[in-house]
Amino acid sequence: MTARTRARFITLEGGEGAGKSTQVARLRERIEARGHRCIATREPGGAPGAEMVRKLLVEGPAERWDGVTEALLHFAARREHLRTTVLPAIASGTWVVSDRFADSTMAYQGYGHGIDRTMLGTLYDITVGDFRPDLTLILDLPVEAGLARAASRRGKETRYESLPVDFHQRVRAGFLDIAAADPGRCVVIDATAGIDDIARTIGDALATRLGS
Ligand SMILES: Nc1ncnc2c1ncn2[C@@H]1O[C@H](COP(=O)(O)OP(=O)(O)O)[C@@H](O)[C@H]1O
Ligand SMILES: [Mg+2]
Prior knowledge:
Blueprint: E1 9-14, H1 20-33, E2 38-42, H2 48-58, H3 67-91, E3 95-99, H4 102-112, H5 117-127, E4 135-140, H6 143-151, H7 165-181, E5 186-190, H8 195-210
Parallel strand pairs: 1-3, 1-4, 2-3, 4-5
Bound molecules: adenosine-5'-diphosphate and magnesium ion.
């Protein structure tokens, strides 16, 4: 008999092309195989209104927004995503795996664009409150490798990818800083490995951290 555990909120983070979307799909399958209901979702987006905001953020020229406006748009979309998708799922016992969450705003707008990190923490408190991921998996790999992987996908969602390499270096360092400051929540995963190896490492992290 398996003990019923409360539904968990798990986030995958990392730079462009780190393998987040690939691993979110794998992780959802793993969680369902263990008998839990699970949805995969993403940020920015994950709810109808939030997907509209996503288009504003991930398409078009880099200079379309400054860092503060970006942060405000990300938190607006995040609040809608939580209200409409994440919180109702968790309340009904469905696990949620999200492709990016608030650590991306801290890494991209805070570390990448240099927006005041205390202000971003305040925006989190206002728009999200006390809710936190149960586990955050940070996929880490060299920036050049991630951008090369991302470039092999074709699409319109290139606004962040088009930023200079030094921006992405600050984002990578930011994610590692966030992980070091919150080791109880975050696990850094070597994303240079193969897809199956990474999926196995993520599975081990769930077993160790969440007992499932
Ligand atoms: N571990 C891996 N090794 C090699 N290529 C990968 C790996 N994981 C994902 N990819 C490929 O790299 C590209 C980007 O992966 P994706 O999951 O879309 O990254 P992200 O969502 O983090 O931007 C895709 O073409 C994907 O198939
Ligand atoms: Mg992706």
